[in-house]
Amino acid sequence: MPELPEVETTLRGIEPHILNKKITSVTVRNPSLRWPVPKDSLKTNLIDNSFVSIRRRGKYLILESQNGFVLIHLGMSGCLRIFNNKSAPEKHDHIDINFKDNSILRYTDPRRFGSFLWTKEPYSHPLISKLGPEPLSNEFSGAHLFEKSRKKTMPVKNFIMDSKVVVGIGNIYASEALFLSGIRPKKNAGKVSRNQYESLAIEISNLLNRSIDEGGTTLRDFVGGDNKPGYFKQRLNVYGRAGQECKVCKSTLKNLKIGQRGSVYCSNCQK
């Protein structure tokens, strides 16, 4: 699924094309996403208005208009792209926001696990209000992870993927950050030392920044908002490489299940 760098890449891709442009119509072809799309609210509040800002909170995009906010999550396979009004919609193109200059912001989602909601108060919305700190913010640190992890018996990988602990760390980047910091993914979160968490926090931030700079990670259906794929996949050390050689020590990478998810790691490099 699109993770934080992919969502940030999408934001940067669509931002120049949607701000301060009059919205002429909203088309909802299929309102059956993870939650029903409030098509009447979208049309009533967006038509003849414009988006004045776009922000990201975790994996959510928040598009601000004069009347309120569109809250978007890309789910497992969603993407937002810019088209001109001559581009005919395809099977999984569920929502179009049409602008006066004949451009379209189009939401595509083959699996329909994403969400496209309307709200007046995004930061008090139930999907947003309890989220942990942004991993690229000053509130995120090894000390934060260490403090939150005390007495936790869950695997450290699940711990850092908990959005109440820190937002935006999905399976790909959790696996990669744990490898880079030398921590085995199944180790109890409460048994990870402060120094290990300091290293892990640094690796998470560096990894996400590098991925954003290179356009995200192209996996399955993800395409950036500028219609260009991301290129970070070629740099992955462990994710999707079970049975292959570790790039550091040449040991064979192993795979285990943690919370129904595959977790590839190096038994030699990660303790």
What labels describe this entry?
271 residues; alpha+beta; N-terminal domain of MutM-like DNA repair proteins; Helicase, Ruva Protein, domain 3; 4-stranded antiparallel sheet; 10 strands; 24% helix; elongated
Task: Write up what this structure looks like.
It is a single chain. The protein is an alpha+beta fold. It has 2 domains: 4-124, MutM-like, N-terminal (N-terminal domain of MutM-like DNA repair proteins); 142-265, Orthogonal Bundle (Helicase, Ruva Protein, domain 3), CATH 1.10.8. The protein has 6 helices and 10 strands, in the order αβαβββββββααααββ. It has helices spanning 4-18, 39-46, 142-149, 156-160, 171-180, 194-213; strands spanning 23-28, 51-57, 60-65, 69-73, 79-84, 93-99, 103-108, 115-119, 254-258, 261-265. The strands form 3 sheets. A 4-stranded antiparallel sheet has the order 1-6-7-5, covered by helices on one side. Strands 2-3-4-8 form a 4-stranded antiparallel sheet, with helices on one face. A two-stranded antiparallel ribbon has the order 9-10. β2 (51-57) and β3 (60-65) form a beta hairpin. The longest helix has 20 residues, at 194-213. Mean pLDDT is 92; it is low at 218-223.
